[in-house]
Structure formats: C-alpha cells, structure tokens
Amino acid sequence: MARISVITAFPGLIRDFVSASVLGRGIASGKLEVSVTDIRDHSSGAYRQIDDYAFGGGGMLLMPGPLESALDAVAPRGDRFVACPTPQGVPLHQELVEDLHKASLAKRLVIVCGHYEGIDERFVERYVDVEFSIGDFVLTGGELPAVALIDAISRLVKGVVGKERAVEDDSFYSGMLDCPHYTRPADFNGALVPDVLLGGDHAAIDSFRKEEAARRTISRRPDMIARAGIMPYLRKGAYVILLHHPVRDRNGRKSTTAITGLDLHDISRACKTYGVKKYFVVTPLAPQREMVKKIARHWVDGYGAEFNPDRKEAMKLVKTCPSLAGALDWIEEREKARPFTIATTARQTDCGKNWTCVKRQMLELSRPLVFLFGTGSGLHGDILSGSSVVMNPISGGSKDYNHLSVRSAVGIVLDRFFGFR
C-alpha cells in the first residue's frame, strides 16, 4: 500500500482534495493511505507560531522547530522519504512520480509544504530528500504541488484507477503525448469524429491513435521525442544490418572483415530486447555465412536452444545475406515499402544529422527503418553516400577518442531510439 503524509499549515486544503473522486475511493478502499498533519499542532506558545521574519529581510519563513517536531511525529527517520515542493526543485515528471511512488511503498512519503517565503534552509538541508517543482511560476504555498503529486502517484497504485490500460495510455506514461479522444455526438456543430473511430476495426483504431499521438508529440512537444521509446509508434518494422563488406580498413580502403561470435550473440540480444524484426549479417564470403548459420542452428535448433531458451529467441533474428542490396530487397518484399536506411559512423561528416532529428523524421515515415553498422574501421563511403541519412557519431566525454565496439554502438543507438524505462 502506498503511504503518504502531508505536513502543512492548511490541512483543510489537502483533506478536501483527497476525499473526492478517484483519490477518495482509493483511500476508502484501503489501497492508498493519505494522512495530514497540521504544523501548528507542533508549535509552542499561546499563539501557535510557526513562522518568523527571515534574517537579512525578505519576508516570513516557516521555522525549523515546528517542522522538525511534526516530521518526527509522522514517521521515524529510517521509515520516511521527504519531498518538498519548491520553485528551486527538479521539475516534476512522470519518471520522478514513479520513483516517489516506489518510495511510498517502501517507506512513508512525507510531503512538507512550505508557505510564505518558504522554509528555513537548515530544515531542508537536514531532512529533505528531494525538492520538486511543478513549473516555473510562484505559488503562495506548497499545497497545490502536494496534491498534484498525490494525484499523480494515486494513478500508479494498482486498483485506484479502474482500467490499468488507461494509465498506460496516458500522456507521458509512454514518453509520448496521448492521442485526441472523442465522445457523443459524432457530429458536433459540423465537427465530425474521425471515421476510423466509428468503424469498429480495433487494429485500425489502434494504428490511428498511435499515429495521432506521434503527430501531436512532434508538433507540440518535440523535446519529448528524445526520451521516448518510439517502436510502438512506427508504421513499419525496424531492422539492423551489420556489414562486413564494403567497410574501411585502417587506411580507408574498401575491405572485407571476418565475422565474430560476440557480434552475433550480443547484437542479436540487443535487437530482441528493443523489438527489432531482423538482424542481418552481410558478407560476400560463403564460408563466413555458413559459419553464422551453424552457430545460429546450435542455439535455435540444437542443444543451445534447450540450454538457453532466451538466447534461442535472440538468435532466431539472425539472417545472413551476401550483399546489402539483397538484404534491403528482402525487407522491401516483406514490408511492401522501400527501406529508409540510417547509416552510422564514428567519423564526422558534412552530411551527418543529430539522432534526435532522425528520430522525429522516423515517426513521420511509412517505410521500414534499417540501421546500418560497419565493422573494421567503419562503413565505406559508398554506403554512406547511398544511405537515406547519415547520423552524427556517438559522442562521449572524450573529444579525441571515439572507438566503441560495434556491439556497444548498436546497444546505444537502439536504446536512444527504442528504449524507455
């Protein structure tokens, strides 16, 4: 059960909010516990003073003594996680809400609401685990951010929201904005509900909603695309091709490289993890292709399949091909659309694009997406010039060292495009 306590100078604001609607039902059912503590109950003196003037001027602050007393009364130090709404805090986002929900399951989540000019900094430094903000504006107190956080957490508590799928489809939960929704009447003063929603074809409806969610996110919140997993929103499949020819040798000449078992195992597992449809290994050398098939058979049909079923599922994605053109033709035949090829490189090029721009572009396409990775010293210039787009190199903390293994590069790229949570 999620346990949340609020420490505030205005307990009525919190109690009224949490007693209504979904929150109220969740509390009544025992799935969620929300308690409210009045700071004034822990003040001293006849006037129940909880605030005083700030040293150096600047208005009234909540005093640390009553807050400390209230906090200790709510939960002992080892059984609490303390959050405080403040304009200086980290912006509240879905992932932080999920972390705070987990905190409310393991310990008691205590939200301390500031007021006036805020809270004595000594209390914050000593007791507060996280400060959060709901926007770049100033409120009279922390009560509104507190109830916003409680409401957001309540949607993650199993059974509080009637349909769990409704939570998963919400804006931000999947990293994308939600699609538009419609209800009766189908014709509202000449504004019509889209025909696809009236037809009863659930697959078409699901496709429509994903396309609309992607379109809305691109137009309204393009910044969200960078951290969203976009695989469910693609109209066609995604593929990985590892080229062993044509690639560059150390002198930049066209070359052919040998296949390694590590590349087969590690890249196939990455592809399976992120939902890639097929992992092509391209080499013109027939003995090399036969070696790949032999290794794959061991894990798919042989003893390896029984020994490690998870590896079997990954190795089933592996397919060999003598040429890049042949692999692209195979994909086109099955997807009924010409592939959009995304070349990767460790070298800066004049035509390189940032991966976030490529990611937005991919959402607007109705073509299968193919990531091209090179072995040796990277993809040959012929491949780069013939690709739909070339991505800028993966950059790290070192300006003059960029020598990732191709296995590492594949994992990073797939996570950037398809990873979430």
List keywords for this structure.
Alpha/beta knot; alpha/beta; elongated; 5-stranded parallel β-sheet
Radius of gyration: 28 Å
Q: What percentage of residues falls in helices of 4 or more residues?
A: 25-40%
Number of helices: 16
Q: At the third CATH level, what is the topology name of the largest domain? A: Alpha/beta knot
Spatial separation of the terminal alpha carbons: 22 Å
> CATH superfamily of the largest domain, called what?
SPOUT methyltransferase, trefoil knot domain
- Overall number of domains: 3
For the biggest sheet, the summary is: 7 strands, parallel
Structure in a nutshell:
By secondary structure, the protein is α/β, with parallel strands linked by helices.
Walk me through this protein's architecture.
The chain is α/β, with parallel strands linked by helices and 421 residues long. The chain has three domains: 2-164, Alpha/beta knot, CATH 3.40.1280.10; 187-228; 236-418, SPOUT methyltransferase, trefoil knot domain (Alpha/beta knot, 3-Layer(aba) Sandwich), CATH 3.40.1280.10. 39% of the residues lie in helices and 19% in strands. It has helices at residues 11-18, 21-28, 64-74, 94-106, 121-127, 143-154, 164-168, 202-220, 261-274, 286-300, 303-307, 309-315, 324-335, 355-363, 381-385, 406-418; strands at 2-8, 32-38, 51-53, 60-62, 80-91, 108-112, 130-133, 187-188, 191-192, 238-243, 247-248, 254-255, 278-282, 318-321, 340-343, 352-353, 369-374, 389-391. The strands form five sheets. The chain has a seven-stranded parallel beta sheet, with helices on both faces. Strands 2-1-6-5-7 form a five-stranded parallel beta sheet, sandwiched between helices. The protein starts with a strand and ends with a helix.
